[in-house]
Amino acid sequence: MSTLDRLLGGGFAPGSVVALVTPAAAQVDPLLAAFVADRDVCYLSTERPAGELRRQYDTARGRFDVGRTSADDLLAAPEAALDSAAQELVVVDPVNALEGTGDEARYRAFLDAVKRRVDETGGIALLHCVEMGSPDLRDRTLYRADAVCHLVQTVDATAVTTSLVVPKHRGGRPLLDPVKLDLTDRVRVDTSRDI
Predict the structure, then answer these.
(1) What is the structure's pLDDT at 92?
(2) What is the domain range of residue 79?
(3) What residues contact 21, with CB distance under 8 A and at least 6 apart?
(4) Integer Cα distance of 90 and 14 in angstroms
């Protein structure tokens, strides 16, 4: 991740809300693991059970608070879910269920609460946006995010190619040229150039 931080001109600033947009079939777990490594993390999942996430991502190098929650619970009382949030990183994985409610007022209030929390703590929020259908409020997520990271995956008969583009990075340098990633058991950034 240090290579990505360097390419982004220092990484994401404290108080940033980052939208990570990924294909549903992408090998995204190593990327999520790299985000949560060595940090105090509050991981809110709307899909996967807490035990499964703990086994996969809890490195015991920081506090790892994980919970499975519903879109309704997060939209009804975002502050309650975020009050106990670790100071370094809040992950909502995926945000699709929240975006899919179509309740723009409550979703906007949720995004505002997330932004307030990371501003107060100097942390970062990661909103995992999975490309499944077209959630009603996806554009709201991308607009509100301080940075948008788009994982692009190409599958052909000979290879799976994964690259990252950061078309939006408020207060920083976007990555407009795709950066090739090798996502197997960990994240490797391909810094060579195809000629």
Answers:
(1) 96
(2) 13-152
(3) 129, 131, 142, 148, 149, 150, 151
(4) 12
Q: Is residue 179 situated within a structural domain?
A: no
Give the count of domains, the chain.
1
DSSP secondary structure code for residue 192 in this structure: S
Q: Which two tokens stand for residue 63?
A: 């506090």
Q: Which one, of 19, 20, 9, 6, lies nearest residue 171 by Cα?
A: 9
Three-class SS of residue 123? coil
The answer to whether residue 142 is domain-embedded is yes
Instruction: Kindly report the pTM of this predicted structure.
Output: 0.93
Q: Is residue 184 part of a domain?
A: no
Report whether 141 contacts 127 (CB < 8 A): yes
**Residue pLDDT, tens place only, 115-128:** 999 999 999 999 99
Q: What is the CATH number of the domain that holds 108?
A: 3.40.50.300
Which DSSP helix (H) or strand (E) runs through 160?
strand 160-169
Question: Max alpha carbon distance in the chain (Å)?
Answer: 52
